[in-house]
Amino acid sequence: MVTINVNKFKCGYCGACVSVCPAGALELVETWIEVNESCTSCGICAKICPVGAIEVKK
Amino acid sequence: MKNEYDVVVIGAGPAGSITAKTAAEKGLSVLLIEKRQEIGDPVRCAEGVSKVWLRKHIEPDHRWICADVKGSRIFAPDGTMVEMAEEIAGGEVGYVLERKIFDRALAYEASKAGVEVMVKTRATGLIIENGFIKGVNVSHLGQSYDIKAKIVIGADGVESKVGRWAGIDTSIKPADIETCAQYLMSGTGIDQEYCYFYLGNEVAPAGYVWIFPKGNDMANVGIGILGNKSGNGKHAIDYLNDFVNDKYPDAKILEMDVGGVPVSGSIERTIANGLMLVGDAARQSDPITGGGIINAMEAGKIAGEVAYNAISRNDVSTDSLNEYEVKWRETIGREIDNSLIVKNTFTKFSDKELNSLGHSLKGVNFSSMSLLDLLYALFKANKKLLWELRVLFKTVVKYELDFEK
Ligand SMILES: Cc1cc2nc3c(=O)[nH]c(=O)nc-3n(C[C@H](O)[C@H](O)[C@H](O)COP(=O)(O)OP(=O)(O)OC[C@H]3O[C@@H](n4cnc5c(N)ncnc54)[C@H](O)[C@@H]3O)c2cc1C
Ligand code: SF4
Ligand code: SF4
């Protein structure tokens, strides 16, 4: 289940969200973020994203 | 691409390129992979660097130097300014780089030393046998390959996965990352010989705004705030927009950069059997300045040499690679630890306290750009407020460290 939404038009593909994800659910591929099923909807990535590109779907 | 190398380096930032170059110069076969199609782009950096330290790794080249800086101007929340300027006679202090060109120049140096470089090539996992890392799984233009290596180097920056794959938890807590946004702007009218810093919980909670000259009338105008202060409707970019709209409503935005800087201080372990982490992947950036270019290069140099020593000994176990762990902790590690003390003290201050610190230095003339000199002057005038910093001066004097980078 995909639990977060990354607005690819806002995202600056910096990888900051990847570094804080405790579950290791995120990956910065080249110019986009991929989320896998290990996401726990903790919301940390959404909090620290410099541009507010991430939304958590609860 | 061959299917076996002495060393495979993941990530072609300053850490990866210097590690690869150093290992190749020693005679090892080295592959350097980078997932991006253009090394160095997009930029996630304010591009400030100390001249003396830079020169230890590469001869300065006008093609990637934008500005020559002789001092800093630091502003307390109420506007009180503290100026630190180096005597021009010394001619040292800092440069502001063009990272896109600089990073590629470092990769070029590596390639000249014999390193094989591959872009658009992403590490997707590690080959692990009997508790030893034996190589990397990579994806190149959508095709998967397995590449064997005696030693794998994780130089994959802030978003590093290599450590986690090897069982080292490198995930960063929100209080241990500066979340940053920056515009390259024209028309700010700043003095191109100075770096500017603005402190205050309103402009930049537990962080600061920086303005670094980029030549002509351009400048990097950026902000970093501590991750635990971000969110709740306001992110780094919103603080930056507020600052810029207020201060430079007529300046123009030529580029936008975003990123995260680890400010956790040294992590517990940066090696595994057959693996070393370097640079931001090892969280080696400075917790107070956020500077990571020099530390990444210093660590890369050590890792390249240790890779050679370990392979020569025919022993790539953690016992053997511990040489890296010890060497980086003795050098850049000490400064990282000191800066962590400063970070933990300063991120707690209210604007009132920051203002009073600023006032205590009014009229003090700094003829040196050393952060330590500044801190010492602050400490002398505000012993009570800054009591936690006392250990700093002891350690630094004892180890005769150059605290400024
Ligand atoms: C906004 C901001 C401002 C900063 N300002 C300064 C400053 O003024 N001065 C300073 O010294 N430092 C500054 N820093 C810190 C500095 O940018 C970093 O510390 C430095 O870039 C670290 O170098 P590195 O080689 O470790 O990592 P990076 O430069 O991040 O390089 C890592 C490379 O690895 C690649 N990679 C990642 N994963 C993979 C994979 N799976 N496969 C293949 N390749 C991969 C990435 O694409 C990247 O090219 C700043 C950082 C930010 C975010
Ligand atoms: S932190 Fe935000 S801008 Fe950076 S890669 Fe993640 S979603 Fe994109
Ligand atoms: S919500 Fe939490 S677990 Fe899910 S991707 Fe973001 S940081 Fe990771």
TrEMBL record, chain A:
- State one Pfam family annotation: Fer4_7
**Positions of the 4Fe-4S ferredoxin-type domain:** 2-30, 31-58
InterPro entries, per database record? 4Fe4S_Fe-S-bd, 4Fe4S_Fe_S_CS, Fe-S_Ferredoxin
Q: Which GO terms describe its molecular function?
A: 4 iron, 4 sulfur cluster binding; metal ion binding; oxidoreductase activity
Q: Which SUPFAM superfamilies match?
A: 4Fe-4S ferredoxins
Q: Answer yes or no on keyword Glycosyltransferase.
A: no
Keyword match Electron transport: yes
**Source organism, top-level taxon:** Archaea
Keyword vocabulary terms for this entry: 4Fe-4S, Electron transport, Iron, Iron-sulfur, Metal-binding, Repeat, Transport
**Name of the protein in its database record:** 4Fe-4S dicluster domain-containing protein
Name the species this protein comes from.
Methanolobus vulcani
From TrEMBL, chain B:
Which cofactors?
Answer: FAD
- Looking at the record, the residues that make up the Digeranylgeranylglycerophospholipid reductase catalytic domain are 176-261
Which UniProt keyword terms apply here? FAD, Flavoprotein, Lipid biosynthesis, Lipid metabolism, Oxidoreductase, Phospholipid biosynthesis, Phospholipid metabolism
Q: Name one Pfam family in it.
A: FAD_binding_2
Give this protein's Gene Ontology molecular function annotations.
flavin adenine dinucleotide binding; geranylgeranyl reductase activity; oxidoreductase activity, acting on the CH-CH group of donors, iron-sulfur protein as acceptor; oxidoreductase activity, acting on the CH-CH group of donors, NAD or NADP as acceptor
Q: Which family does it belong to?
A: Belongs to the geranylgeranyl reductase family. DGGGPL reductase subfamily.
What EC number(s) would the UniProt record show? 1.3.7.11
Q: Where does a 2,3-bis-O-(geranylgeranyl)-sn-glycerol 1-phospholipid bind?
A: 371
List the catalytic activities from the record: a 2,3-bis-O-phytanyl-sn-glycerol 1-phospholipid + 8 A = a 2,3-bis-O-(geranylgeranyl)-sn-glycerol 1-phospholipid + 8 AH2; a 2,3-bis-O-phytanyl-sn-glycerol 1-phospholipid + 8 oxidized 2[4Fe-4S]-[ferredoxin] = a 2,3-bis-O-(geranylgeranyl)-sn-glycerol 1-phospholipid + 8 reduced 2[4Fe-4S]-[ferredoxin] + 16 H(+); CDP-2,3-bis-O-(geranylgeranyl)-sn-glycerol + 8 AH2 = CDP-2,3-bis-O-(phytanyl)-sn-glycerol + 8 A; archaetidylserine + 8 AH2 = 2,3-bis-O-phytanyl-sn-glycero-3-phospho-L-serine + 8 A
Every FAD-binding domain range = 97-170
What is this protein's record name?
Answer: Digeranylgeranylglycerophospholipid reductase
* Any one Gene Ontology cellular component term annotated for this protein: membrane
* HAMAP family xrefs: DGGGPL_reductase
